Amino acid sequence: MSEKVLSRRLTRRSFLAGLGAAAALPILAACQPQVVEKIVEKPVEKVVTQIVEKEKIVEKLVEKVVTQIVEREKVVEKLVTVAPAAKAPVELGIFHTWPADRWLEQVEFDKKFMEKHPNIKLNVTNTEFGEYFRKILALAGAGTLPDIMYMQDTRIAQWVRQNSFRSLADYVKADKEFQIEDLATEAVRLCTFKGQLYAIPYDWGGPSLVYNKTMFDEAKLKYPDESWTLDNLLDAAKATTKPGTQWGFDYSYIGNWAMESMYFRPFGANVFNEDETASQLNTDQAITAMTWFSDLLLKHKAAPTPSEKAALQAAPFAVGKVAMFYAPPWNAPTFIKFGGDKLKWDVAPMPKGPKARTSAAMGSNYAITKDSKNPDVAWSYLREYFSKAGMEFMWSCRGTGIPTRKSAQACFLTAPLNPPGAKYWVEAVNSYMLMGRPVAPAADETIRIMTREYDNLFLGKATVKETHEAITKQLDPILAKNKE
Amino acid sequence: MSLATRERIEFYIAISPWLIGFLWYTGGPIIASIYFSFTDWNVLTPPKWAGLSNYVELFSVDPIFWVSLYNTAFYTVGHVPLTLLFALATAILVNQKVKFVTLFRTIYYLPAVTAGVAVSILWLWIFNPDFGLINYALSLVGIQGPGWLFSKEWAKPALILMSAWGFGEAMVILLAGLQGVPTHLYEAAKIDGANVWDEFRHVTLPMLSPVIFFVIIVSIIGSFQVFTSVYVMTRGGPADATLMYVLQMYFKAFSDLKMGYTSAMAWILFTIILAFTLIQFRMASRWVYYEGDIRPGGGR
After folding, report:
1. How close A34 gets to chain B, by Cα (Å)?
2. Confidence of residue B282 (pLDDT cuts 50, 70, 90)
3. How far is the C-alpha of A425 from the C-alpha of A206, rounded, in Å?
4. What's chain A's average pLDDT?
5. Is there a contact between A219 and A302 (Cβ–Cβ < 8 Å)?
6. Shortest CA distance to A417 belongs to which of A129, A98, A101?
7. Which residues of A fall within a CB distance of 8 Å from B238?
8. Which residue of B12, B19, B152 is in closest CB contact with A10?
9. What percentage of chain A reaches a pLDDT higher than 90?
């Protein structure tokens, strides 16, 4: 029989037919109708047994019964047993995007966590930031997202609205030690959607005014302080500029999340309306605001052009070429790396604009993915990661950023990386810093449009009015989709 | 089992690893992308059927689509002839029997095998308006160089110039073609009194035309897919002056999470490249000469 089969000629036609059949397989797989089931989770009861032994309370999770109600009149009752963290072996997948110089701290933290929880094995992956979202999207497409993942501030809305993360509200509510109220309110707001918390923010901070003390001394200027207004900034910028050699000011976050609070709100203007469904750049205040700031370069020549900046090894402030800059705490390592001992710098409050003193704060987050098979164990990791001790270890005592947990912020002030004025970063976060925008799902596209049009402005190819009109025309149809 | 049957089976077994890999990792996804181009798909949730809306949005709503297409076409029109010119001129030079010609061939080919990212970073410095080599050289003759990558007008020409640096691959192919030109044709031309230019025009070019044709096709296909240099050097700026088609696809896919939309863009690109290729093949009959080719009318 086999001889007969094999002796049949395998013609090109039959081969191509086989090829076509093989090629059709992926299509058929892709075209499978998706059965969409809407699962309504209705937690019934969580029984916690408290055993008091000689005044020592031992908390022991017993069982968690979850009744799942599936539409189409099908009811499935499922008993979910949650193994206490101390007993059943569990592997937890975590995705980070730390730079190389921060990775060792993460390794150390994870080592200590696993020593404390010997049954939990952490399967940790670190990806360079530029690659992270490509990688995580591929995993999302394959349905293999890790249990816990990093999520960037401007992208969290996209992922939350696509139902990618698990609500943490029940964990936070049940875990009295976690103390969600100790986290920065605005940071928590960023991670909240329709009243549910979907991620935990680990840092919260934004730009404040940093200044080059040497350049101020050379120009015989007093250092910036709380009394400073934008007029003081302009005068200092002009006084410290030597054309072609050094400049008084450099821009940061043009087109980006901090722009609205740094450049527009001091003038009483906004880039977006309240729910980011329309732009407000065509108001007189917005045009006045951007005219003031763009004149620093275009009129007063007190800021480097893009090509002049490209000639420098790093950010102009870091290499001592700029007297003032709006910088967040996480820029400190860059200043130290490139400026070394030569760069004498400090932090001051943001100068007050005609209407207000404002800046923007943003933060990064971690979330438990919706399909995580070990959400309770994932929470046990997050609660330690975001505890006071965890945040001090990973973040504040290193000086690389302000933790969202207010009780952990003190350590930031004494970190070796930070100058004396670092307290102004912390004060700003806890007072006049507002959540940066855009954060709605179309954030990336919004930032690209704004960056493009502001390129035209700073190249001198368009006026502020023309730039804002162009942005509004392109942005409003995209922002309107944020209503969905 | 006959020998022919056994050989046939062995053949298919031998090519099956590649074939399975091709179908699974390339062919299958290509076919799947046809389906995705008709859907609204963000990867995080299952695709939703959207019909022709992606294509309609591309052609009638999205102005950046046309900007990216124009930028890519501009780049192609500059890159292809410039690269061909450099490659042909260099191939003719290194086809001479001179000392160290092998070394020269290697040197000219090296840029083609250098990593794209490294080349891009190198050229970022060369194009720097303030201290880059090009503007420095221009300043020596009293010319103030342009802003290059920081100028809307000069950013694309800068990328085209940079792309021509990688002519080595085309040079090697043309060199092989040159070495395939029968020497008796040059001898016959000399006997007929042809000078160097006549030889080039009436012998070299016609005999090399199939290779030139191949180089043009491959260059057009490659230049329509330019990505690495723009991603590293400009990210599409300044003000989208260098926003190329594939870079826009990248933004749409990985920043905006519009995989269905991007699939539609990919198929439009495929159609454009296919159209150009077919037009080239159609026009080839007028200027490409194959050895032994007999044209109507008895001559060339």
Report:
1. 8
2. very high
3. 7
4. 84
5. no
6. A101
7. 306, 455-456, 459
8. B12
9. 56
Nearest Cα to Cα of residue A329 among A313, A347, A345:
A347
In sequence order, what are the residues at sequence separation of 6 or more whose Cβ sits closer than 8 angstroms to the Cβ of residue A417?
Answer: A332, A333, A336, A398, A399, A400
- Residue B289 near residue B210, CB atoms below 8 Å: yes
DSSP string for A382-395:
HHHHTSHHHHHHHT
For residues A6 and A8, give the distance between their C-alpha atoms in angstroms, rounded to a whole number: 5
Whether residues A455 and B44 touch (CB distance < 8 A) is answered with no
pTM for this prediction? 0.81
- Return d(Cα B16, Cα B25) in angstroms, integer: 14
- Give the span between the Cα atoms of A96 and A106, in whole angstroms: 9
Which token pair is A433?
Answer: 């810093």
Judge contact between B150 and B238, C-beta under 8 A.
yes
pLDDT of residue A438: 86
Alpha carbons A418 and A412: distance in angstroms, whole number: 8
C-alpha–C-alpha distance, residues A444 and A278, integer Å: 15
B121 touches chain A (CB under 8 A): no
CB A370 within 8 A of CB A232: no
Sheet holding A345-348, edge to edge: A247-250, A322-327, A208-212, A345-348
Query: B117: part of which helix (H) or strand (E)?
Result: helix B116-126
In terms of Cβ atoms closer than 10 Å to its own Cβ (0-12, 13-18, 19+), residue B265 is buried
Q: What percent of chain A has pLDDT over 70?
A: 82
Nearest to A126 by CA among A153, A92, A100: A100
* A22 lies within 8 A of chain B by CB: yes
Question: How many Å apart are CA A255 and CA A447, to the nearest integer?
Answer: 5
pLDDT tens figures, A419-464: 999 999 999 988 899 888 888 788 888 999 999 999 999 999 999 9
Long-range pairs, B206-209, Cβ under 8 A, ≥24: B206/B289, B206/B300, B207/B177, B207/B180, B207/B181, B207/B182, B207/B289, B207/B291, B208/B88, B208/B174, B208/B177, B208/B178, B208/B181, B209/B287, B209/B288, B209/B289
| 3-state per-residue secondary structure call for B191-212 | HCCCCHHHHHHHHHHHHHHHHH
- The amino acid that residue A401 corresponds to is G
pLDDT given for residue A45 in this prediction: 44
Helix axes B205-223, B168-179, angle to 10 degrees: 160
Question: What is the helix (H) or strand (E) element at residue A48, kind and residue range?
Answer: strand A39-53
Q: Does the CB of A28 have a partner CB in chain B at under 8 Å?
A: no
Q: What b/e readout covers B173-209, taking b as 16+ CB neighbours within 10 angstroms?
A: bbbebbeebeeebeeebeeeebeeeebeeebbebbbb
Q: Express the helix, strand and coil content of chain A in percent, nearest 5 each.
A: 45, 20, 35
Q: Which of B43, B117, B259 to mutate to test the interface with A (most CBs of A within 10 A)?
A: B43
Residue type at position A398: R
